[in-house]
Each structure stands twice: as structure tokens, then as C-alpha cells.
């Protein structure tokens, strides 16, 4: 990452001095960014493009008077209705790097703001801290959100989930908008259960509207604490 | 089940250039060459790192190119295959729900693929591979016609 800015030992000319800290925040393009601590809110001194065309970098100059080892700065990115924040403690004259991503939660804890279609005997139970999908017998079972997601701005479908059986039977997937009956065999992208319970699916190749859902097999149980799209 | 070949970036190919490894999968059954070669297949137990550093663990099947173009090629392929099956007099279904009754040992074309009915399928019920249909080939269908003559 190269900025067209030279550190100045005098701190003049609008650039940072050697005693300042530099905070570089990488965000999805089209975002606005602020850094806030207490009553102080800073806007970027400089913007520059990142190597990835879908990202921008915002540079903040933090003077020594604002160094604080106990109270972190809150870096916040906003784009339309999306927002993302992260705390960063700045206590010396070095460079701090933060990357912010937007997430669209499909499942968060025991809640999901969407209606789901449960196919082929899939069942869904909302608990206090998780949403549980369970098959009801032989074969594969699917739960799919009743609606479409515009995935153009997102690069990942992520789930934090535990499986009663890790055997390649459970999965997260996307389907074409025009697929009437989503199944394991007509997905457009799919990632199967693995031992980590943290499933990431690369969806950077998609644009436009897709269906999103989960699947399992037999009477196996998949317990989701989160399922979300991420930029 | 189809044999594909993976390069070092887990990109799918239909032919081996000498540096690839074969993988057996049913993930691309019924898919055209353009579609398959636009995809990435990460086998179970392996992982792939995207250029931005994101790491994906297998088994994952995801488009490595613009999906819209791949889907367009696949749609055209299915239309061509469906027309071929229709020319043979085989009834067509748009999806895996029967819009009519199918007796055992009859044939159905679905999205360009040919299926043989192994258990009669009542109208408005699901068509399920392995339960009431199996995938088959045009050659098998033609053989069946000859046997019936």
C-alpha cells in the first residue's frame, strides 16, 4: 500500500509528523469512515484505492495528544444501510491497520429475520442462542430462505455451525433465483460440513439475486449460531 | 459421476494437460463444458486461499468466473439437450415435480438430462433420483425401444 504522502518531522504541511500514529482503514468501496473516541470524531486525511478494486483505504492521522492505552478508538464504516465498527487501541506513533467488512445476517444467535421454506422433511427450531435444522428421515433435506438475496456486493457466505455428524451430508449453498425446488444436486455453489464448524463459501463469482439455504441428510442435526453474507 | 481434472488453483478442467490430477464427483452431472471449466472444486480435507487471503476448506464447489456467463452457457446447453430429447418423443419436465403420471420403465427428460422411471410416479409428486428415477443415456433409451419392437 503506497500513499502519496511523506512524513514530516515538523508535522507541517498537513501531513503527519513522526510523532503521530497512522491509522489505515480498509473498507468496501463507496463507504464513509470515521474514527471516534469520546467527543472526538475524525474523518480521513486521505483516501486511496486498494489493490482489490472492491476496497478503498482511508488514512487517519492521530496526534500524540490522542494516544490512549485504555480507551480504544471506534472505527466505523457506513455504506447506505450497512455499517461496521471495530475498536482499535492507539497508544504510540506506529501504523495501525484495520479492515472492516459488512455483514448481512441470515441467522444470528437464535434469531432469523427471514421466513424459511422447509423442504423434503427438514425441520427448523429456534432456540435462545441457535437455530437448529434437523432432517426427518432418509435422503437429503433442505431449508431455504423464502426470498432472494442480491449477493453482488458480497464475497463470502459464512456459517458458524456444529454438526451432529460430519460426513459431507450437511452443507450451505446458493441456488439460482429460478430454481423452484432447491436440492443438494441443483446448487450453484456449495460447501459441505467440515470438522471446523466454520464454513466459508466463496461467492465472489456471483452477481444479482440468488437463493440461500442449508441442507442436511438423514436425521442429522446442524446447529447454527450464525449464517451471514460478508463483503 | 464425472471425472474432472484439477489444476494447482483447484480450477476444473475436462482434459489433463499433464500437470493436473483427476477427481471423481457428481457435482457437475448434466453440466456443459463451459460451466464445468468455469468452476473451482476444493476436495474434502483440502483448502484454497483466495487472492485476498480468504481461505476456503473443502469440500467446496463455487464459480471461479462470472456466474452469469456460466449460467447462460448452461441454459443454452440444457435447451439444446432438451430439444434433442423432445425430438426422440421423450416427455419433458422443467423441474423435479411430475406434471403427469409416469409408469415404471418410462423415460423423462429434465433440464436436458434423461431419466428412466424405476418406480411409477404419480402426477404432482416429486421425481427423486435413486428413488423413482435413475439417470440414463439416449443410447439406453434407443436400446429399450429396439427391445420393445
Description of the molecule:
The complex is a heterodimer of chains A (231) and B (149). With 231 residues, chain A is mainly β. In chain A, 0% of the residues lie in helices and 50% in strands. Chain A is built from no helices and 20 strands. In chain A, the strands form four sheets. In chain A, strands 9, 11, 12, 15, 18 and 20 form a six-stranded antiparallel beta sheet that branches. In chain A, strands 10, 13, 14, 16, 17 and 19 form a six-stranded antiparallel beta sheet that branches. Chain A has a four-stranded mixed beta sheet with strand order 4-5-1-8, with no helix packed on it. The radius of gyration of chain A is 22 Å and the shape is elongated. The two termini of chain A are 20 Å apart. With 149 residues, chain B is an alpha+beta fold. Chain B is 24% helix and 28% strand. Chain B has three helices and eleven strands; from the N terminus they run E-E-E-H-E-E-E-E-H-E-E-E-E-H. Chain B has helices at residues 33-36, 67-87, 138-148; strands spanning 2-6, 12-13, 21-25, 39-42, 47-49, 55-57, 60-63, 92-93, 107-110, 113-117, 133-136. Chain B has a four-stranded mixed beta sheet. A three-stranded antiparallel beta sheet of chain B has the order 2-1-3, with no helix packed on it. The longest helix of chain B is centred in the middle third of the chain and has 21 residues, at 67-87. Chain B is elongated. The two termini of chain B are 31 Å apart. The mean pLDDT of chain B is 94. The chains are: A mainly beta (231), B alpha+beta (149). Chain A binds chain B through residues 52, 120, 139, 155-156, 168, 176, 179-181, 183, 185, 187-192, 194, 196, 199-208, and chain B through 26-27, 29, 38, 40, 44, 50-52, 54-68, 70-71, 94-97, 126, 128-129, 131. Strand 17 of chain A pairs antiparallel with strand 7 of chain B.
Amino acid at each position: 500500500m503506497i500513499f502519496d504522502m511523506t512524513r514530516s518531522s515538523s508535522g507541517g504541511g498537513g501531513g503527519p509528523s513522526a510523532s503521530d500514529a497512522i491509522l489505515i482503514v480498509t473498507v468496501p468501496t463507496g463507504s464513509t469512515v470515521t474514527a471516534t473516541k469520546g467527543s472526538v470524531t475524525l474523518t480521513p486525511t486521505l483516501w486511496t484505492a486498494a489493490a482489490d478494486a472492491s476496497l478503498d483505504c482511508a488514512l487517519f492521522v492521530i496526534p500524540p495528544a490522542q494516544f490512549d492505552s485504555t480507551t480504544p478508538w471506534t472505527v466505523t464504516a457506513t455504506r447506505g444501510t450497512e455499517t461496521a465498527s471495530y475498536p482499535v487501541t492507539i497508544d504510540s506513533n506506529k501504523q495501525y491497520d484495520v479492515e472492516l467488512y459488512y455483514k448481512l445476517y441470515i441467522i444470528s444467535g437464535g434469531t432469523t429475520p427471514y421466513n424459511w421454506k422447509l423442504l423434503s422433511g427438514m425441520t427448523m427450531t429456534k432456540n435462545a442462542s441457535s437455530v437448529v435444522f434437523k432432517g426427518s428421515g432418509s435422503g437429503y433435506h433442505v431449508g431455504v430462505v423464502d426470498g432472494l438475496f442480491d449477493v453482488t456486493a458480497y464475497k463470502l457466505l459464512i456459517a458458524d455451525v456444529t454438526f451432529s455428524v460430519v460426513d459431507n451430508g450437511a452443507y450451505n449453498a446458493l441456488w439460482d433465483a429460478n430454481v423452484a425446488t432447491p436440492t443438494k444436486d441443483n446448487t450453484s455453489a456449495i460447501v459441505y460440513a467440515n470438522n471446523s464448524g466454520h464454513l466459508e463459501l466463496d461467492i465472489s463469482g456471483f452477481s444479482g439475486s440468488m437463493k440461500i439455504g442449508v441442507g442436511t441428510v438423514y436425521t442429522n442435526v446442524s446447529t447454527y449460531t450464525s449464517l451471514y453474507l460478508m463483503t | 459421476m464425472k471425472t474432472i481434472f484439477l489444476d494447482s488453483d483447484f480450477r476444473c478442467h475436462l482434459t489433463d494437460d499433464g500437470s493436473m490430477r483427476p477427481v471423481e464427483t457428481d457435482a457437475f452431472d448434466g453440466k456443459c463444458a463451459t460451466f464445468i471449466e468455469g468452476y473451482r472444486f476444493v476436495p474434502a480435507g483440502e483448502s484454497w486461499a483466495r487472492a485476498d487471503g480468504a481461505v476456503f476448506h473443502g469440500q467446496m464447489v463455487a464459480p471461479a468466473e462470472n456466474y452469469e456467463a456460466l449460467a447462460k452457457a448452461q441454459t443454452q446447453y440444457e435447451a439444446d439437450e432438451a430439444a434433442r430429447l423432445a425430438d426422440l418423443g421423450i416427455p419433458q419436465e422443467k423441474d423435479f415435480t411430475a406434471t403427469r403420471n409416469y409408469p415404471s420403465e418410462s423415460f423423462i427428460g429434465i433440464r436436458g438430462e434423461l431419466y428412466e422411471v424405476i418406480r411409477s410416479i404419480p402426477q404432482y409428486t416429486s421425481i427423486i433420483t435413486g428413488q423413482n428415477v435413475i439417470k440414463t443415456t439416449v443410447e439406453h433409451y434407443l436400446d429399450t425401444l429396439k427391445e420393445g419392437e
